[in-house]
From TrEMBL:
Belongs to the YejK family. The keyword Cytoplasm applies. This is Nucleoid-associated protein. It is found in: Cytoplasm, Nucleoid. GO terms for molecular function: double-stranded DNA binding; single-stranded RNA binding. Pfam families: NA37. Its main location: cytoplasm. It comes from the Bacteria. Keywords: Cytoplasm. GO terms for cellular component: bacterial nucleoid.
Length: 334
């Protein structure tokens, strides 16, 4: 992901732990700095694998207004990247003082991929290691730990500038169950959380299961559509981007590209046009299928233990909720 601007500041807690000191950098890195590009790329890779909260700037929030104003001034050329980054860094130093006990480096990177621009904010630590010098001697070598983010956030500038009131254009690292540091970071940036990635992903998978049942698809067709959904969701997850319902609908059914989208809208699942994928929820989703002796069975794994039960001792599969189409056929069997 090409870098447009990047900079690194240092934050350190005071001895009494009551505040953070900011060691601000006075100049940004050159746009073509290869080491900075490598660092930003590694941080993006790590960020994409982390569980996240999603939201947008609070419309009436004082902090959101201030942060958005700094960003807009930079984008409009009224302020430079250094000034904007120092303002953000000082705000973080003030607001997160009680949450950080170890110093580290605040990396800010303005990036562009295709037509999309983003601003990555990541706080990382330096670890001590061993390297080899020109004389082939082992020497101390400090290294940034890019696999661990103390906190991080990413703003999709392009979506923010687009002004869609439903778009969740800010994401931030949020470990399972939430944590005080993530919540403090969101408040500091003026972000109001609007998307629940695990819940929305579960709802999407439920909508997909209902769609497969409604269409009365055979096992092979159902498996193909499942693979299309999971493949698309995994790709978006690796890129750190949300799933788009219209795009997903076209992949699920190429012959009727709007069918799945219309099913979601008509059934009123309450899903936004874009959904941030949740890795853990996706990993738990797959379909069990089997065919033997004229009997074909296929169901989503998340139904096991609820509407479908398996007795391993007797080898029996108990289906509690029979599909409507099958039930009607059974009722007409005489």
């Amino acid at each position: 992901m090409p870098l447009l601007q990047s900079i690194v500041h240092r934050l350190d807690p005071t001895l009494d732990g009551e505040s953070l000191t900011l060691d601000a950098t006075s100049a940004a890195h050159p746009a073509d700095a290869p080491n900075m590009e490598a660092l930003a790329s590694a941080l993006n890779d790590t960020y994409n694998t982390k569980p996240k909260g999603w939201g947008r700037f609070a419309p009436d929030g004082e902090q959101a207004t201030l942060v958005a104003a700094w960003l807009q001034a930079y984008l409009d050329g009224e302020d430079d990247f250094v000034g904007m980054s120092c303002g953000l860094a000082q705000r973080l130093a003030t607001e997160l003082a009680a949450k950080l006990s170890v110093g580290g480096y605040l990396v800010l990177a303005h990036q562009q991929q295709g037509d999309t621009q983003t601003l990555l904010l990541a706080f990382v630590h330096q670890r001590e290691g061993i390297g080899i010098n020109a004389d082939h001697h082992a020497v101390p070598a400090a290294q940034i730990n890019t696999r661990q983010l103390t906190f991080g956030a990413r703003l999709n500038i392009t979506q923010w500038q687009g002004g869609d009131p439903q778009t969740q254009y800010v994401s931030f690292v949020k470990e399972r169950g939430g944590n005080k540091l993530a919540e403090a970071l969101a408040r500091c940036l003026g972000v109001t959380e609007g998307a629940d990635a695990p819940a929305d992903t579960r709802t999407l998978l439920k909508a997909f299961s209902d769609y497969v049942e409604k269409e009365d698809l055979d096992a092979e067709a159902s498996r193909e559509k499942t693979d299309a959904l999971v493949g698309y969701a995994s790709e978006q997850l690796s890129r750190g981007e949300p799933m788009t319902l219209t795009e997903l609908s076209g992949l699920v059914d190429e012959q009727q590209p709007k069918a799945f989208y219309e099913h979601i809208r008509n059934a009123d699942y309450g899903l936004a046009p874009e959904i941030p994928p949740d890795k853990r929820t996706l990993n738990q989703f797959r379909r069990f299928t089997g065919r033997a002796g004229g009997v074909s069975v296929s169901f989503d794994s998340h139904l096991l233990g609820s509407s479908v039960e398996y007795d391993e001792t007797t080898g029996r599969l108990i289906i509690k909720q029979i599909p409507k189409q099958l039930k009607e056929q059974l009722q007409r069997r005489d």
